[in-house]
Amino acid sequence: MDAQFAISGRDFVISVTDKGLRNSILKMKMDQDKTCQLSSHTFMSVSGEPGDTSNFSEYIQGNVKLYSVRNAQDLSPSETANFIRGELADALRSRSPSQVNLLVAGYDKGTNEAALYWIDYLSAMAKVPFAAHGYCGYFLYAVMDREYTADITLDGAKALIKKCFEVLKTRFIIDYSDYTIKVVDKSGTRVLSQDEL
Amino acid sequence: MSIMQYNGSAIVAMAGKDCVAIAADKRLGQRALTVDTDFQKVFPITDRTYVGLPGLATDVKTLYDRFRMRVNLYKHREERTIEPKTFSHLVSHMLYERRFGPYFVEPIIAGLDKNDKPYICGMDLIGCLDFAKDFIVGGTASDNLYGMCESLWEPDLGPNDLFETISQALLAAVDRDALSGWGAVVHIITPEGVITRDIKGRMD
Predict the structure, then answer these.
(1) What pLDDT score does B10 carry?
(2) Helix or strand holding residue B73 (H, E)
(3) Nearest to B62 among A89, A118, A137 (CB)
(4) Residue A127: helix, strand or coil by DSSP?
(5) For residues A112 and A41, is the Cβ–Cβ distance under 8 A?
(6) How far apart are CA B118 and CA B109, in angstroms?
(7) Which residues does chain A have within 8 Å of residue B65's beta carbon, measured at their own beta carbons?
(8) Is B182:B34 a contact under the CB 8 Å cutoff?
(9) Which among A128, A138, A139 is the top mutation candidate for probing chain B, defined by the most B β-carbons within 10 Å of its own β-carbon?
(10) Which residue of A has its CA nearest to B63?
(11) Contact predicate B66/B43, CB 8 Å
(12) Are A178 and A43 in contact (CB under 8 A)?
């Protein structure tokens, strides 16, 4: 029931997740950050089985940081995404699989290109221009298919995200009040507030 | 819906005169929802052998990585590239190793052996080899592909005719299958090299 989607342009990726932690009929927490910073220019948003989400993201975060410390160089977004997919694939047929859906967003300082990777709970991975996980995909893919172009600007993506919010507000059963909006580009990762869109 | 139909795919391989062709659609879905329209399902194993992997997307990637490792090791140990027939037996073995917890893919292999003779074969998810002289089909659109190939294929097609035949067979088959389509990639493997073409079909 989490909202999780992202849009990537040529040199930025903007990712949105809702802030609600719900358990059955209860709203447990409404300021939960569902993203996980992996390096200065790569982060991922995580949803799925509670517990698996924090466990898996902490494991990945630790390993990515370890690589950076050992090699004095960060993993690129594609290397990070492939590493994550490998770990999730190994876990899939083991004693303890992780039921997490991820969107890995990053800016590659080597090639100066942004990248967005969709990874589902079975660890199928695809590099995509825009993506969503969960129910929100059924509403938002239509909006993104219509409005997205390959050379979309950051302002264009922000306008597209506003349209996405409108659709969810009008047609989705859950009322999402607040979102975590993160942008990664050449200068690193920053958080936007909903007013800044 | 079975796990083999979760992501959707359509792959076909055909044998021609001194050439083989292998083609696949590009859709990655989650049941009815389409997630990616550029998903790779056919991979080069050597310059003259390609493998197509219809089925569960996660196993497609996992298996391709495993094949790559085994083929690289083979090359180091044997100091030669692997033949398509040998590779298909390797794949069959790797799949049967997981007999009671299988990978959900049904590989299709197409290649030219060292004498430039065409070789195609397919197998089921536990590695039962299906060695055919004409064509091999796989994926959610396999029934459609059987019909198309049976009517369109004829022996001894040259590379250009083979390209036309395999493209028409794939395009018509995926148009009748909700879970596959969204574009197609065709590889024609000839002794001179591999020609890869991207074809645009109905994007739905």
Answers:
(1) 97
(2) helix B57-78
(3) A89
(4) strand
(5) no
(6) 11
(7) 86
(8) yes
(9) A128
(10) A89
(11) no
(12) no
Q: Distance (Å, rounded) from C-alpha B2 to C-alpha A189?
A: 41
Per-residue pLDDT of chain B (204 residues; tens, 9 = 90+): 899 999 999 999 999 999 999 999 999 999 999 999 999 999 999 999 999 999 999 999 999 999 999 999 999 999 999 999 999 999 999 999 999 999 999 999 999 999 999 999 999 999 999 999 999 999 999 999 999 999 999 999 999 999 999 999 999 999 999 999 999 999 999 999 999 999 999 998
Least CB–CB distance from B33: residue in A89, A125, A137: A137
What pLDDT score does B1 carry?
A: 82
Cα–Cα distance, A126 to A101 (Å, whole number): 12
The residue of A84, A93, A139 whose CB has the most chain B CBs within 10 angstroms, and thus the best one to mutate to test that interface, is A93
User: How far apart (Å, rounded) are the C-alpha atoms in residues B120 and B108?
Assistant: 7
Structure tokens at B40: 């790779």
Q: What is the bridge-based pairing of β-strands A42-48 and A130-133? A: unpaired
The verdict on a CB contact (< 8 Å) between B58 and A92 is yes
Single-letter amino acid code for the residue at B95? L
pLDDT at position B155, please? 97
> What CA dihedral angle connects B25, B162, B16 and B193, to 10 degrees?
-80
pLDDT in the model for residue A28: 95
Q: Which two tokens stand for residue A63?
A: 């390993």
Beta bridge partners of B195: B188
Nearest C-alpha neighbor of B191 from the set B112, B83, B85 = B112
Whether the CA torsion B63, A61, A183, A97 is positive or negative: it is positive
Contacts of B6 in chain A (CB under 8 A): 122
How many CA atoms does the CB half-sphere of A153 hold within 13 Å? Answer: 3
What pTM did the predictor assign?
0.95
Distance CA B28, CA A123 (A): 13
